[in-house]
Amino acid sequence: MSTSSNRPLSPHLFIYKPQLTSIMSIAHRITGVLLSMGSAVLAIWLISAALGGSSFEAVHGVVSAWYGLVLMFGWSFALFYHLCNGIRHLFWDAGMGLDIETAYLSGYITAAAAALLTVVAWVVAIF
Amino acid sequence: MSIQSPLARARGLGSAKDGVGHWWAQRVSAVALVPLTFWFVFSIAAQAGSGGDAMIVWIASPVSAVLLVLYMAAVFYHSQLGLQVVVEDYVHHEGLKLFTLLALQFANILLAAGAIFSVLYIALGGGR
């Protein structure tokens, strides 16, 4: 087809200098995949709560052990990152903030908001 | 300039064959997940360390139970839509792609059904 040569190509990632915007873009996808795994753990936690007894204690034990808490901390940051960056995407979908300057500004705001929300959630959890 | 080919524009559906249905569903579930996620994370954080029995009581309360059911439905729907796109982007072998998409869809529906039934079971007093 004659028009096919005019269509845009994906950037060649390995010769492409990393930028805030591209790193945040792939991080959105990576956190999304990780959160799917976290959601599976959440479902298993609820199922074990319904089963009760030793299965709930086993899952609760893993979640409250040090490695469980480390995973939960990572999960909470991934969740807030994906949430904030998702809102950034929704603005883009509405046609807002697509120029480079605003995209960088919203990128910094997103990263800061995700970090702040993670800290606030853990302050609430610990105190 | 449109980035669609003339044939795609004539059919109006794009390469996924279902138009913007998938794209729109992902946005709708995303919007639903914004308040639900804030509610869920801060509810869990507020009672961290209060023990398993307190968690059961929390799950069983009507407001938590309804919101948890909605949250689990939105989470696994959004998760399925997102993982589907990731597989479509990176898995190029047709057979493997079909198998992975089927496995993911079944897994997400199974997890959603398990989570939602468990919430209802606890809320309606099962096992007590």
Can you walk me through this structure?
The complex is a heterodimer of chains A (127) and B (128). Chain A is mainly alpha-helical and 127 residues long. Chain A has one domain: Up-down Bundle (3 helical TM bundles of succinate and fumarate reductases), CATH 1.20.1300. Chain A is 78% helix and 0% strand. Chain A has four helices and no strands. Chain A is elongated. Chain A starts with 19 loop residues before the first helix and ends with a helix. The model of chain A has no long low-confidence stretch (mean pLDDT 91). With 128 residues, chain B is mainly alpha-helical. Chain B has a single domain, classed as 3 helical TM bundles of succinate and fumarate reductases (Up-down Bundle). Chain B is 78% helix and 0% strand. Chain B contains five helices and no strands. In chain B, helix 2 packs across helix 4. The radius of gyration of chain B is 19 Å and the shape is elongated. The mean pLDDT of chain B is 90. Classes of the chains: A mainly alpha (127), B mainly alpha (128). Chains A and B meet through helix 1, helix 2, helix 3 and helix 4 of A and helix 2, helix 3, helix 4 and helix 5 of B.
Secondary structure layout:
The complex is a heterodimer of chains A (127) and B (128).
Chain A: H1 20-51, H2 53-64, H3 66-93, H4 100-126
Helix pairs in contact in A: 1-2, 1-3, 2-3, 3-4
Chain B: H1 6-11, H2 21-46, H3 52-60, H4 62-90, H5 94-123
Helix pairs in contact in B: 2-4, 4-5
Key structural traits:
heterodimer; A: 127 residues; 3 helical TM bundles of succinate and fumarate reductases; 4 helices; 0% strand; B: 128 residues; mainly alpha; 5 helices; elongated
Q: Name the helicity range of chain A.
A: over 70%
Hey, roughly how much beta strand do the residues of chain B contain? under 5%
Radius of gyration of chain A: 20 Å
- Rounded mean pLDDT of chain A is 91
Major sheet of chain B: size, sense and barrel closure? none
Rg of chain B, rounded, reads 19 Å
Q: What is the name of the CATH topology of chain A?
A: 3 helical TM bundles of succinate and fumarate reductases
* Spans where pLDDT lies below 50 across 5 or more residues of chain A: none
How do the SSEs of chain A run, as a string of H and E? HHHH
Q: What top-tier CATH class of chain A fits best?
A: Mainly Alpha
- Tally of structural domains of chain B: 1
